[in-house]
Amino acid sequence: MLEFTATCDIHNPQIRAEYESKIVYDYPLSKFRADGYSKEIKTLRSDVTIMERAIQAIMLSQYRLKVFQDKRLSVKPVVLFKAAKIADSNEFMEAFIDTISNLTGNELRRISELTDNETLGEAYAYFEKNGISFDQLAQELREDFSTEHCISANDDKEAAAKQIALNSLEDASNPYRAVFEVKKLDEGWDVLNLFDIVRLYETRQSGGKKISSATISEAQLIGRGARYCPFQIDNEQEKYKRKYDTDREAWR
Description:
The chain has 252 residues and is α/β, with parallel strands linked by helices. 41% of the residues lie in helices and 7% in strands.
């Protein structure tokens, strides 16, 4: 009889005493990441408003989409917007859809100048190199992140009705690029083309020495986003392992 688990709290003395003599193989997330079986997680910090942060994220998502398209790969990057409360999530989703419907090239240009970040800089350099103006980019974002391409997972009835859509985001026929949620998707949600998670609140809950449930929830969700999206550019590559860690220019 074998047990497989990704959440064994081996640092807990009681759990360790129970499991230590029975562990056949211990393969922690840190080793899993180091061996290239997950996405590489990067945290981007910016001193901008939440809406400006969201727009930076969808520009980055569109950059990812175009890189995949350049390599003739049918991968649709998805962005997750995580709020602390359902009311906040619903309010932000409404504001986001309204903002994107009126998005202009001048607004994108202004936002592109707010943050000096290497990853965002790569995206902006790609757009410029490929002759994609901010006006063109704004038009694409107005279409790709319109209300028809946004989905909420907050309401129980709504989540049940949209469960198929939320669990088939990788399908070519699935229209959604943006997901809005609080905690409905922290567990049991496997979406390989989730590349960007935008936190819509500024602080984490703290419980002194004890890790808060909110912090655990964030860690679980990041784990969902870290799941690798398999692809090959050529037959020499390993499909299910991360690529280009040591040669970031090779994919260009």
